[in-house]
Design goal:
Blueprint lengths: L1 H18 L2 H19 L2 H9 L4 H6 L6 H4 L4 H6 L5 H5 L1 H21 L7 H31 L6 H29 L9 H14 L1 H9 L14 H28 L6 H28 L5 H19 L3 H10 L2 H7 L2 H7 L4 H29 L2 H14 L1 H9 L3 H29 L5 H20 L2 H7 L2 H10 L3 H12 L11
Length: 513
């Protein structure tokens, strides 16, 4: 009896030491701050738009607003290097950026609440603009949180911090997922009786919830890290921002011009390929404008190189030609569940489940399952070889999509709960392992830029493909779609094998110490 008691006490002490310290609790709340916005521009927004009578293809294309998460590496050097006037002296570099981005998230949510998507095309465009602002602000907040996590604690704590972050993230998703749906239901909106006022109140409440994030930022400590300036004076930073601004304008103009020049099509595959051309062409114009601006002397070459190029070249210097395996693995690891998740709420709605049922099963029970999965994933990442843990996560992530195929043929509540719980356990486990994996790749000298690059690449292809999920379902059916999401997750296992064979990646570390 005494041995058992000692073992239990030891296990609790280990848990307390890992997860109930100041750093882990800070990451729990910062994870919450990161988890709240994502569903408000992704999943819950989809149900709002559907109730407002917006077609499925347009709804899923709103998911492209979250592409800011996939392109955040482009402006991460500015977040990493640019000191914010007044705020930096009061809060420090990381906390000042956290404060600014959280205020912008609140502003974007308030703006979204001001427009009724059912009132016409102009309101829909204004809502789309607000969504882009929300995606940009939330992605910028993520840049800072990821850098803060790696800089605020030693390497030995990174797996525990990853699990705490994922747990907080999932709790934030409960609030903005289940909470938003419960509120919209409570205020009187449904598929049969759409109420703009109900959704407006819901999004205003979500904006108020983000004040928790602001209070967290004001209470945490700034990381004690020697940050070397990349410019000689304020003018260098201003010129760096100008290069970025010109490049963004070129991206927007190029995106519209290329889109206008491409032919219209109803084909899903053709539409995906043309959309890819549009994105790739716009990114090329972004890079070309940056290169021309720098060569024209808009910003000093040395400053641009330190901000954008050095963090990237350092990664390739570490891994050489084999870095392509790592980048491919990062880009495809979450493709199976991200693409499936883009239309999951609409799927449940189309199967006949109510908003309250969806909120209870998916946004409440499912998210708690994801939190449990996150802690299991954190334990696996710490207890075993990181690539072995990655393999387990990848297998589970794609296999669980077959449960949604079964749900298509057995559309009842027990089957939905089974699919949701197992899927979220797997997703939480895979997320925590993947965060630990990305942390292991990141150098302490370039935390914000490198981690932003990795996490951007993680969502880029899945988000682009996910934008066509509605069109794929329209052209086929849900059974085919979820079978497809299972199949596209299988090549990830080959990439894990190649990375494990050719590259030595240890447990999560801070970097060059």
């Amino acid at each position: 009896m005494s041995n058992t008691g000692q073992g239990t006490m030891s296990a609790w002490q280990n848990f307390e030491r890992a997860y109930l310290n100041r750093q882990a609790l800070s990451l729990l709340f910062l994870g919450f701050a990161a988890g709240v916005p994502i569903l408000l521009v992704f999943s819950s927004l989809g149900l709002w738009l559907r109730e407002a009578g917006i077609d499925r293809a347009t709804v899923t294309m709103f998911g492209w607003a979250t592409l800011a998460y996939s392109f955040k590496f482009i402006w991460s050097p500015l977040v990493d290097a640019l000191p914010l006037p007044i705020l930096k002296n009061r809060l420090g570099h990381r906390r000042s950026w956290l404060f600014l981005t959280q205020i912008l998230v609140i502003v974007a949510l308030v703006l979204m609440a001001m427009f009724d998507p059912a009132s016409g095309e102009s309101a829909l465009y204004l809502m789309a603009f607000s969504c882009v602002l929300l995606g940009f602000s939330a992605a910028s907040q993520d840049i800072v949180i990821d850098a803060y996590r790696i800089e605020s604690a030693p390497a030995s704590m990174q797996t525990a911090l990853s699990a705490s972050y994922v747990a907080g993230y999932r709790i934030g998703m409960i609030v903005s997922g289940a909470g938003a749906l419960y509120l919209a239901d409570f205020f009187g909106s449904s598929m049969e009786t759409y109420s703009y006022a109900a959704w407006q109140k819901t999004y205003l409440i979500m904006a108020a919830v983000m004040l928790i994030a602001v209070f967290t930022t004001l209470s945490i400590k700034e990381p004690t890290i020697d940050r070397k300036p990349i410019g000689n004076d304020t003018k260098d930073y201003a010129r760096l921002v100008l290069v970025f601004g010109l490049s963004v304008v070129a991206f927007i103009i190029g995106y519209n011009l290329i889109g206008g020049a491409l032919p219209e099509t109803d084909g899903v595959l053709t539409g995906f390929l043309l959309g890819s051309v549009q994105f790739i062409g716009s990114i090329f114009l972004f890079g070309l404008t940056s290169w021309l601006s720098v060569n024209a002397g808009v910003a000093p070459k040395s400053v641009v190189q330190q901000a954008w190029l050095t963090p990237i070249t350092e990664f390739f210097e570490r891994y050489g030609k084999k870095a392509i395996y790592v980048l491919a693995l990062i880009g495809l690891y979450r493709v199976s569940d991200v693409v499936a998740g883009n239309i999951s709420n609409i799927y449940y709605q189309d199967l006949g489940f109510s908003k309250t049922q969806i909120a209870t099963a998916v946004k409440m029970v499912g998210v708690w399952a994801g939190i449990v999965g996150g802690f299991i994933g954190g334990y696996l990442a710490q207890a075993t070889n990181i690539m072995r843990a990655m393999t387990i996560g990848a297998i589970l992530a794609c296999l669980t999509n077959l449960l949604f195929v079964a749900l298509f043929y057995l559309p009842n509540a027990p089957m939905m709960y089974t699919a949701v719980i197992i899927d979220n356990l797997a997703a939480g486990l895979a997320s925590a392992i993947f965060v630990a994996f990305l942390s292991a790749l990141t150098s302490i000298r370039f935390t914000a830029v490198q981690y932003a690059l990795f996490s951007s690449l993680m969502t880029l292809f899945p988000k682009v493909l996910g934008g066509y999920s509605g069109a794929i379902v329209e052209a086929t059916n849900y059974s085919f779609f979820f079978g497809f999401t299972f199949a596209i997750g299988l090549p990830v296992l080959i990439l894990i094998y190649l990375v494990n064979k050719h590259i030595q990646i240890g447990q999560p570390k801070i970097g060059d110490e």
